[in-house]
Amino acid sequence: MNIEFLFPRTESKERHEHDVEMLEADLEEEDLKREVLTSLNSSDAFLMVTPGQRITSDPQFMKGHGTYHLPPDSMLSAVAGIVEPVNKLILVRPLHTRYTGDIGDLVIGRITEVTQKRWKVDLNSRQDGVLQLSSINLPGGVQRRKTEEDELQMRKFFIEGDLLVAEIHAFFQDGAANLHTRNSKYGKLRNGSFINVPPPLVQRCKTHFHTLPCGIDVILGLNGYIWPIDDSTREKIARVCNCINALSQNFVYINDTAIIYAYDASLKFHVRELRRLDVIDEIMSIVVAKVASSKTGFFQ
Amino acid sequence: MQTLISHSERDYILRGVESNLRADGRGRLDYRQVTFETGVISQCSGSARCRLGEGTDVLVGVKVEIGQIEFDGAEEVVGSKKAKWGRVVCNVECSPIASRQFAGRGAEDYNNELTQIMELIFNGPQAGIDLEKLCIVPGDKCWVVYVDALVLDYAGNILDTIFLTTRAALYNTRVPKTVVQEVEGMMEIEVLDDVQEAERIVGWEQIPIAVTLNKIGSRHVIDATPLEELATEAKLLVSVNKRGKICGIQKSGEGSIEPSLLNEMIQKILEALDVRLQQEEEVLANSSRGGAEVGQINIQKLGFFAAT
């Protein structure tokens, strides 16, 4: 079967402006990359590979993430993604990834299981996170040791399917995240809507709790789960949800500024129209232009 | 996709349905935008791909092959009829990349369920296809129409999309001409290679499409998202052809539907389907001329596996 990949095209004008702004070091790096890619027989600026595809058999390159060695001398891709050479090291950046957490990350999770003294939490990660009974604050802000009685009524705090916002406290030996909600900001989520976006699109920020000018509170989980909250108007929530979806479909970084830009641009359309592909295109062209003109806050 | 939903989400969806403003801003009976592409796979006799918004993505390939007529075991009256019939064989597969719940063996049961519904509606005279025209040598050989659907991406409402895509793929299908000669008592079939000579499946106009209504609370919505599907008590799929005749009904889900609501739901579906069929037809008719857009449906060259 003839499989053809279509790449998003950058317009030549934008490209030019971008080049001018680029530091010389960046340019050199870019040239080096281009050189390596050419030596890998790629005529484009990209080299897209699928699992098992040979990247090179030249022994001068080193194997990085997303690649593996096939004796005697082939380097194959282990994932579907884009080849990223760093000098002589070759990595493949996958197109679709699971979330890999870090200590201190703010995440939104869904309870999948209630077990002895702990909850299992889906984090859009390779394995479920763990929320221990000892790492939650009891309702009412009571500070005390958790008793056996608390253990028996764990479902009163969180039940299967519940969404919660938490922070990654530590990691276990097997790599599972240990969460905590020992802060009044964290805990169960109510009165809002759930959105799922690719985790790499959510950037680390000082805060992940934002209040938009339109009055909606948004929690951006670093694992790609997002929760807009409001008590009164569903329409505004729907609009924010659609804006975030539009951003993620166009692979624009999702932060408060981008959401506000998208929200403002969306105001001339009815909330029902925001799912139309041409409307999304129009909004996104405005947002991308605005983001490009005010780079602060986007590339920290 | 997760299989769990929290109480507050269910409540949020319920109230949204009640106030005719769903989580993504649609009303109860609003469909997402549909994008079509026909003739995607050159090895097939006909193929189509369809996306709902930027979510659900279905690829259907139709292949016609010469096969044995099946009429054994049927009663004599039915058997004599079936001896002159071609066959339609359906298969649905949910790709593991479409959703997390389809990974491993998770999709097995669901694939079976979808295939059963497809078979129920497409394999028989109710599908509109003139089965007698598919017969080559009565009692022996016929064209078998293999309909294979592949779900590439999942964002709710798979069945409607599969039906829509299947109709487009069957519209796109060309059946080669055959010449039958009797040589020494044996029937010899010659398939003509000429592409120009190949013909559309007879009766494609009457191939049905389907719309699913999801009962949430005391009301119902069209084109549900995955979260809405989790909050759904009962689903009703109604399949209708161009003449407005019902070709199949399937109820699924754990909840119940009251008789009065059932009538109302079917009426709603009939109205929705009438519009959809007209739109699809217009779009398909224009498809040979490149891009086309009618109402909520548009046809576009996406490029196979194209990035969004």
UniProtKB/TrEMBL annotation, chain A:
Boundaries of every Exosome complex component N-terminal domain copy: 48-84
Source domain of life: Eukaryota
Subcellular location as annotated: Nucleus
Domain K Homology as annotated: residue spans: 192-227
Ranges of residues in domain RRP4 S1: 98-169
GO annotation (BP), single: TRAMP-dependent tRNA surveillance pathway
Subcellular location, principal: nucleus
Annotated SUPFAM superfamilies: Eukaryotic type KH-domain (KH-domain type I), Nucleic acid-binding proteins, Ribosomal L27 protein-like
GO cellular component: cytoplasmic exosome (RNase complex); nuclear exosome (RNase complex)
Gene3D superfamilies: 2.40.50.100, Nucleic acid-binding proteins
Presence of keyword Transcription regulation: no
Record keywords, A-Z: Exosome, Nucleus, RNA-binding, rRNA processing
One MF annotation (Gene Ontology) recorded for this entry: RNA binding
Family membership noted in the UniProt record: Belongs to the RRP4 family.
Protein name: 11160_t:CDS:1
Organism: Ambispora gerdemannii
Automatic annotation (TrEMBL), chain B:
Domain Exoribonuclease phosphorolytic, residue spans: 31-176, 207-267
Record Pfam families: RNase_PH (PF01138), RNase_PH_C (PF03725)
InterPro entries: ExoRNase_PH_dom1, ExoRNase_PH_dom2, ExoRNase_PH_dom2_sf, Exosome_comp_Rrp42_subfam, PNPase/RNase_PH_dom_sf, Ribosomal_Su5_D2-typ_SF
GO CC annotations on file: cytoplasmic exosome (RNase complex); nuclear exosome (RNase complex); nucleolus
Keyword Secreted: no
Annotated GO MF terms: mRNA 3'-UTR AU-rich region binding
Predominant cellular place of this UniProt entry's protein: cytoplasm
Protein location: Cytoplasm; Nucleus, Nucleolus
Keywords: Cytoplasm, Exosome
Domain of life: Eukaryota
Xref: SUPFAM superfamilies: Ribonuclease PH domain 2-like (SSF55666), Ribosomal protein S5 domain 2-like (SSF54211)
BP-aspect Gene Ontology terms: exonucleolytic trimming to generate mature 3'-end of 5.8S rRNA from tricistronic rRNA transcript (SSU-rRNA, 5.8S rRNA, LSU-rRNA); nuclear mRNA surveillance; nuclear polyadenylation-dependent rRNA catabolic process; rRNA catabolic process; TRAMP-dependent tRNA surveillance pathway; U1 snRNA 3'-end processing; U4 snRNA 3'-end processing; U5 snRNA 3'-end processing
Protein family per UniProt: Belongs to the RNase PH family.
PANTHER family from the UniProt entry: EXOSOME COMPLEX COMPONENT RRP42, EXOSOME COMPLEX EXONUCLEASE RIBOSOMAL RNA PROCESSING PROTEIN
UniProt protein name: Ribosomal RNA-processing protein 42
Organism: Ambispora gerdemannii
